[in-house]
Amino acid sequence: MRLVLAAGTTHTAEIDGISAAGAAPDLMAHTPSADVEIVEYGRPVRAPIVPVSPSGCPTPAVITRAVRERLGFELTVIDAGLIRPTSTPTVSVGAQGGEDIRETEPVPRAQEIYEEARRFGAALPDDSVMIGETIPGGTTTALGVLTALDEDIPVSSSLPDNPLRLKQNVVSEALSQSDLGRGDAAGDPVFAVNSMGDPVLATVAGFTIGALGSGIDVTLAGGTQMLAAAALVRHAGIDDPLGLATTSFVANDETVALARACERLGIDLEVTDPGFDEDDHVSMQRYVDGEGKEGVGMGGALALAHRAGVDMDSVRDSVIEVYERLDGDADGP
Fold first, then answer.
1. CA distances from 224 to 55, 82, 244, 251, 328 (A)
2. 274 exposure class (CB count in 10 Å sphere: 0-12, 13-18, 19+)
3. Across residues 308-333, what is the average pLDDT?
4. Higher pLDDT, 227 or 163
5. What's the whole-number mean pLDDT along residues 224-251?
6. pLDDT tens-digit series, residues 150-162
7. Element (DSSP H or E) covering residue 327
8. Residues 22, 136: contact at Cβ < 8 Å?
9. Nearest by Cα to 287 from 240, 315, 253
10. Rounded to whole angstroms, how far apart are CA atoms 31 and 49?
11. Closest C-alpha among 129, 289, 154 to residue 225
12. Rounded to a whole number, what is the distance in angstroms from the first to the last CA of the chain?
């Protein structure tokens, strides 16, 4: 199985209180670059940080890497708008970092990104792939896209208390700035991303449509951002079977009606519980407390472990190994 990660940025993440994908706002721009290096190499190589939340919750990349060390799945990273360098080999789709969604066109090259990603997805030789994301602020842009498409689907958060009202206010302001109403982009997924989204969503939607068109089985590896990607696929008129592999942390989030949303979009839902509540190690307890929840293909990686018969005790042991390997790096620059 191949895991594809679309890694990018949006200035929407800089809105105070929106995201926990970094110890401080000025470090969040490095998070996607560091995430893909951790999954690829087991530690940051060029990125100067180990991503943690302000309270110390480790990036979901730790869990994805831990599973990769057990299974050895293939990894492909798409540069979907990175603004900080990474040493991980990447596929370019011509993306640049996304602007704040309160700008008129936060993703002005959405059409080109979508088409390049579609061509790449169609050209892969795999029978099946998983695609995940890493982009701070991505649940807010996901809500923007869902609103523009007139999809009544709430989004989750990397924070324990989902700032949904803040996100809704940001989306309302963004609609006003773009002179749009709810549902004005229904049936036009590229316009929805161009007006209210981020370059990662353009990439994931295009890639998924291209892969499905070539007969490849696609599983979206992630949470409510991937529901937004699924909505984009459906609004493009694609009704092929499509899966969503996510964590129990997202499924248990009371602000997200996950099963209902998947049913609405015709998505097969696969939820994996890593059993973090059975271990009191610091690398897992923040997730139990409601932080993190998903990202960097974490739900997909855990699903792959479950499918392969790898017990979660073994996965948790690997998580501790990866975390402790990174722990010294977290005190670096």
1. 22, 21, 10, 10, 32
2. buried
3. 83
4. 227
5. 97
6. 999 989 877 777 7
7. helix 312-327
8. yes
9. 253
10. 8
11. 154
12. 35
